[in-house]
Write a structure and sequence with these properties.
The structure is a single chain. The chain is mostly helical. Helices cover 64% and strands 0% of the residues. The chain has 6 helices and no strands.
Length: 199
């Protein structure tokens, strides 16, 4: 009996997976080589400010508080200050009208309080720049400290009352200038200079 011929031996099996072509893609980029060292790169950390600068910052903050306190005391006692300043204006210009003297007193009082607050704000900005390692901030603080002394002298003349009644206000102004001067001196420590030069 003749047997039926079976499937050809060289016919592909549809169930078998297709073989992928072994030819590399000429347009594909070359494989990246594996890293020999998998240690992550070091992350630079900011150097903490020295102890002298931290003490200087605390003294500056106390000085700012004293300056703002002096401004608040001046606003609260403005009636007494306005009367006294208006009297000083009339002594300097006897022919000046009472209304004009009162207006001049308001201008003098407001300008003096604004000068105190402005010095505090600018000093605060410079101290923040100093803590951000801006070495030029110390030069600005040098100039501003001299201006602060002048403003304090003017404020003592217009924002305090004579005698024992003005002792509290004068003491606050002295603290304002004294603490700022001490903070400035502490900021001149050699450790602060070395910290400012490190990058």
């Amino acid at each position: 009996m003749a047997t039926q011929p079976g499937p050809a031996a060289d016919s592909p099996d549809p169930a078998s997976p297709r073989r992928s072509s072994s030819r590399p893609d000429p347009e594909a980029p070359p494989p990246r080589p594996a890293m020999s060292d998998r240690t992550p790169a070091p992350v630079p950390r900011g150097t903490a400010p020295p102890e002298a600068l931290r003490r200087s910052r605390a003294l500056w903050m106390l000085s700012f508080l004293a300056g703002l306190t002096a401004a608040v005391f001046a606003v609260l006692g403005r009636e007494a200050h306005l009367d006294r300043i208006a009297g000083q204006v009339r002594e300097l210009a006897p022919d000046r009208a009472a209304g004009t003297a009162g207006t001049a007193a308001h201008v003098v009082l407001a300008g003096t309080v604004a000068a105190v607050v402005l010095v505090v704000v600018v000093e605060l900005v410079l101290v923040r720049r100093l803590l951000a390692r801006r070495g030029g901030a110390r030069v600005g603080l040098t100039v501003l400290l001299g201006l602060q002394v002048v403003v304090a002298v003017v404020a003592e003349a217009y924002l305090t009352v004579p005698g024992a009644d003005g002792l509290r206000d004068r003491l606050v102004l002295v603290l304002w200038v004294g603490l700022a001067a001490l903070a400035y001196v502490v900021a001149l420590a050699p450790s602060v200079g070395r910290w400012l030069r490190v990058r």
